[in-house]
Amino acid sequence: MKATGIIVEYNPFHNGHLHHATSAKEKSGADVLIAVMSGQFLQRGEPAFADKWARTEMALAAGIDLVIELPYAYATAQASDFAKGGITLLDALGCESFCFGSEQGAIEPFLRSYKLLADRRGQYEQMIHEAVKTGVSYPMALNKAYTELVGETEGFADLKQPNNILGFHYIDAAKKLNSPIQPITIQRIGANFHDPIRSGTAIASATGIRKAFFEDTSIEELSVYMPEASVLALKRFAEETGSFGSWNRFYPLLRYTILRERPDGIRKFAEVTEGIENLIYDAAKTEDTFENFIVRVKSKRFTRTRVQRMLTHIYTGFTWEQLRTFQTPTYLRLLGMSAAGRNYLNRQKKNIGLPLISRAASLDDSMGKLDIHATSMYMLGLGKTAMKKEYTSPPLYFG
């Protein structure tokens, strides 16, 4: 059986994701579609809108055959490490290809860009270093250096676009792994990442859907943008928890943690750098809402996304010391499967490159224990006491 992979968050699963999943399977000619999906906290430093089991249910109903959890250490990391984690897991599962959505819509510009930067790696890194010294954020420094290298030459990937950037990192990760896995891209359709929802279309970004919901648009009113299974899963999740994940919901606990730790304690958490712990502490003392807090802290150098990743690690207690111990994913956590996915695992069992874990009780290393802890903190943020959900939730089966 031939498998292709995708790296996703499904926050929540919408019609654009359905297009990506369907197109990935068609374009790759694969029999099985495998999704590596972030768990309870996401790459842009946010609690997931719905937990990983609700999002797994959405994915399986839409035709995904295997859902594998991307460990917290990679799901909440900067783009290069996020990509490394996802591609490592897809490679371990024997995927022949991976498929990402992009603004570019064609793979050749990415391959040209990769070759350019590989050939001129030393110069590129020096240019990034010089740009960072001017006070710009690291992502802006990357883009500035890349733009200078490319110049007016056509045929390269536009790495100012968010999905193009992530796609480039997937390719870079596969090359660094010396993996035979082949990249495929499809044209991203409809809304861009930050776009609000628009009437007259069935495609909206996950950000737009969440924003509309928190501005008092009902799940029923948003159903035009999502498959029916997603709507039903969200309704069940809301009935179980009484709310959806957001920093507004989690902020009282985050604020308490910041004030308890004080600057000296904040400094130990992953991604906290360059004295920003003082600003974080001062903002927590004075700002009653998360939005006011984040506006106080973010800046040209420290983007909202970067600050939110710091806050995620402060909230979960993930330290620099822990981060530095993780070199690569150590297991494959199975969240759900279809009949085809189960058949694929049975056929591939001797060739799978990492331990396949179906129960949380088997997550006995530090990376796995961190995932269990992240679920506890996520449930606490929702105001629920279901701390043992990791242990009581077997993989979902969609037959």
Automatic annotation (TrEMBL):
EC number: 6.3.4.-
InterPro entries hit by this protein: Rossmann-like_a/b/a_fold, tRNA(Met)_cyd_acetate_ligase
Record-listed ATP binding positions: 7-20, 101, 163, 188-189
Protein's GO biological process: tRNA modification
One GO cellular component term noted in the UniProt record for this chain: cytoplasm
Coiled-coil annotated residue ranges, if any: none
Main location: cytoplasm
Compartment(s) of residence: Cytoplasm
The keyword tRNA-binding belongs to this UniProt entry's keyword annotation: yes
Keywords: ATP-binding, Cytoplasm, Ligase, Nucleotide-binding, RNA-binding, Transferase, tRNA processing, tRNA-binding
Example of a GO MF term: ligase activity, forming carbon-nitrogen bonds
Pfam family, one: HIGH_NTase1
The reaction(s) this protein catalyses: cytidine(34) in elongator tRNA(Met) + acetate + ATP = N(4)-acetylcytidine(34) in elongator tRNA(Met) + AMP + diphosphate
Domain of life: Bacteria
Family the entry assigns: Belongs to the TmcAL family.
Known function: Catalyzes the formation of N(4)-acetylcytidine (ac(4)C) at the wobble position of elongator tRNA(Met), using acetate and ATP as substrates. First activates an acetate ion to form acetyladenylate (Ac-AMP) and then transfers the acetyl group to tRNA to form ac(4)C34.
Name this protein carries in UniProt: tRNA(Met) cytidine acetate ligase
Organism: Planomicrobium soli
Lineage start: Bacteria, Bacillati, Bacillota, Bacilli, Bacillales
Gene label: tmcAL
